[in-house]
Amino acid sequence: MEKELLNEQEIERILTRITHEILEKNKGAQNICLIGIVTGGVYLAERIKNKIKETEGIDVPLGVLDISFYRDDINISKKRKTIKPTNIPFSIDNRTVILVDDVLFTGRSTRAAMDALMDFGRPAQIQLAVLIDRGHRELPIMANYTGKYIPTSREEKIKVNFKETTGKDSVLLIKQ
Ligand code: 5GP
Ligand code: MG
């Protein structure tokens, strides 16, 4: 069974709000960079980058992080890796890094992303932005910017559709 939780317009408004929260918390965009976690986080990070450009006129550096290598509890998908491999073509030293992911669940991906980032440099700060927080944390991790908190059962899944891949943005709750 599928239930639509967010439509295109709602997702757009959420991303506008998160962008403004990021700008408010960091007093502008001067010292920040965005890192999208493959693959959904990359689309979201690109949207936020565009919105920052529109409101502040600043081109924030955008990197891509694939953490499947750092996750010890999931199978590495070869297919995923060929789509968007890790690419951070700028220094993160002394910058505020904003990690962007589509869904926050146990927190293990975020932990792995933070581990991976430490290999790239020494950020001044790391913040986390997610579209959906579905609960069930196994680590002491929370997002600085949350699109929507959706309490789920472990069996339920969130499906995030992106214009870039399916032609339309939406968030669905999938019940088995
Ligand atoms: P965690 O590592 O916090 O357990 O899970 C977060 C990662 O797994 C995110 O990168 C997210 O894309 C993916 N994920 C976990 N649960 C879901 C879900 O219900 N739906 C989607 N689309 N991704 C999920
Ligand atoms: Mg993901």
TrEMBL record:
EC annotation from Swiss-Prot or TrEMBL: 2.4.2.9
Entry keyword set: Glycosyltransferase, Transcription, Transcription regulation, Transferase
GO MF term (any one): uracil phosphoribosyltransferase activity
Highest taxon in the source lineage: Bacteria
Gene Ontology biological process terms, A to Z: regulation of DNA-templated transcription
Catalytically driven reaction(s): UMP + diphosphate = 5-phospho-alpha-D-ribose 1-diphosphate + uracil
UniProt enzyme class: transferase
Phosphoribosyltransferase domain sequence ranges: 3-145
Keyword Transcription regulation: yes
Record motif PRPP-binding, residues: 97-109
NCBIfam families, sorted: PRK05205.1-1 (NF003545), PRK05205.1-3 (NF003547), PRK05205.1-4 (NF003548), PRK05205.1-5 (NF003549)
HAMAP family recorded: PyrR (MF_01219)
Family classification: Belongs to the purine/pyrimidine phosphoribosyltransferase family. PyrR subfamily.
Function: Regulates the transcription of the pyrimidine nucleotide (pyr) operon in response to exogenous pyrimidines. Also displays a weak uracil phosphoribosyltransferase activity which is not physiologically significant.
Name the UniProt record assigns to this protein: Bifunctional protein PyrR
Species of origin: Thermodesulfovibrio aggregans
Gene assigned in the entry: pyrR
